[in-house]
Design brief:
alpha/beta, 434 residues, three-stranded antiparallel beta sheet, 12 strands
Length: 434
């Protein structure tokens, strides 16, 4: 049976690179009916924190990457010492005292050529003569990364090690340890790095943000997973939207690109918008309601959920991230409207008392206050006034919303309601002109 592992270190949150590695491991094993093992590499006692473990588990769960087994390296120290002792007994390792710190166990590296058939990169050859002797157990009793990996992967029956290509330099060291312990080698596959738009490694400015932060910013899990999938893998035919379930059926590790992937936040934003457009409005509203409560726009329990669902549907096509809703739609929830000064100068510097008064009167006279009747009475009015609709649409929009762009004006008027619309327009009607 195929068995793979994702092995994060809980010295920090799960970031884009780690999430992509987890995704490709998960897809590979799920596509072949195997097992996905989560191994928490918490041997660094000082830097490993429970809050990071919790964040990693929560982020993987949110992304939909379920695991079949989980283990912690900190619970396996006896096992590492046992395997180190085997190498000592065989004369393949030696001990070295460190002044005041204890005794370290060190592996003897034998100069030789090492060949590894990487599933992504093909055959890679290493020269072990450039590798110095490797510490197995440090003087404080903790195992080193490479040795713990070898022992864990072997005893967990890991068949495929799929990781970032920043680990390529570790591969020959681990191969030597496998051979010295007479353990079967797993298959190796090294994923290309993810670079920022400027070509360097990811930084916080270029996308190296925790998965939990992307979640807080309002990205959908499906969109983020879809985008991570495209970082080094594609279906071809310029197709970009693919669900996780469909990807399981189509994923092949051999189709992963060898060249570095570029993380483009604008592309992620586009992807998230595509997912938001097709998201169920009621489900999306459930994510937005807590944000509205946090802003003080909704009382804890006394609000019309159907009304919120309608507003969500109104803004849904325009949203890049979920959190934008509270900024785009704020004018529906406040009494004191904040108007963009530039918008006011551009569209409300002229006196529209006559036009606003006429429109308010027409709204008053509407028997049915519906989107189509609102639009019809507006079109009739501008025709009677002998002006183009666009001359009045922008000033009314700014007076009602404080913004120059947004959903259709007549939808905005309908959901604001007759009285609130009239009240906001009335603020711009100068009394001396009545």
């Amino acid at each position: 049976m195929i068995r793979v592992r994702f092995a994060p270190s809980p010295t920090g949150n799960l970031h884009i690179g780690g999430a992509r590695t987890a995704l490709f491991n998960w897809l590979f094993t799920r596509s072949k009916g195997g097992k996905f093992i989560l191994r928490i590499e918490d041997t660094d006692r000082l830097r490993s924190k429970k809050e990071f473990v919790d964040e990693i588990l929560e982020s993987l769960t949110w992304l939909g990457l379920s695991w079949d087994e989980v283990c912690f390296q900190s619970e396996r120290f006896d096992l590492y010492r046992e395997y180190a002792k085997k190498l000592l007994v065989a004369g393949l390792a030696y001990e070295e005292a460190t002044e005041g710190k204890g005794v370290a166990t060190i592996f003897k590296v034998t100069p030789q050529k090492i060949k590894v058939n990487d599933l992504i990169r093909g055959e890679i050859e290493f020269d072990a003569s450039t590798i110095k002797d490797q510490v197995l157990i440090k003087s404080d009793g903790t195992p080193t990364y490479n040795f713990a990996c070898v022992v864990d992967d072997a005893t967990m029956n890991i068949t495929h090690v799929i990781r970032g290509d920043d680990h390529i330099s570790n591969t020959p060291k681990q191969v030597l340890m496998y051979e010295a312990l007479k353990l079967p080698l797993p298959n190796f596959a090294h994923l290309p790095l993810i670079l920022g738009m400027e070509g360097g490694r990811l930084s916080k400015r270029t996308g190296a943000t925790a998965i939990s932060d992307y979640r807080k910013m309002g990205y959908l899990a499906g969109a983020l997973v879809n985008y991570l999938l495209l970082l080094s893998w594609s279906l071809g035919d310029n197709r970009e939207i693919i669900s996780l379930n469909e990807a399981v059926k189509l994923f092949d590790i051999k189709n992963v690109n060898k060249t570095a992937a570029t993380f483009d936040l604008k592309k992620l934003d586009w992807m998230n918008n595509q997912y938001l457009k097709s998201e169920d409005s009621a489900q999306l509203a459930e994510q937005i309601i807590p944000l509205l409560k946090e802003k003080g726009y909704l009382a804890e329990d006394s609000f019309d959920r159907n009304y919120i669902n309608s507003l969500v549907k109104l803004f849904q096509p325009r949203l890049t991230v979920v959190n934008e809703f509270t900024d785009w739609a704020d004018f529906f929830f406040v009494d004191e409207l904040s108007i963009d000064p530039k918008a006011e100068e551009k569209y409300l510097s002229r006196d529209f008392s006559k036009e606003f008064t006429a429109f308010n009167q027409r709204l008053d006279n509407l028997d049915k206050f519906e989107i189509d009747t609102i639009e019809a009475t507006f079109r009739d009015m501008v025709q009677e006034l002998g002006i183009e609709a666009k001359i009045l649409i922008h000033p009314i929009r700014v007076a009602l919303t404080g913004k120059t762009i947004g959903p259709g004006l007549f939808e905005v008027i309908y959901y604001l309601g007759r009285e609130r619309t009239k009240e906001r327009l009335a603020r711009w009607i100068k009394k001396e002109n009545l």
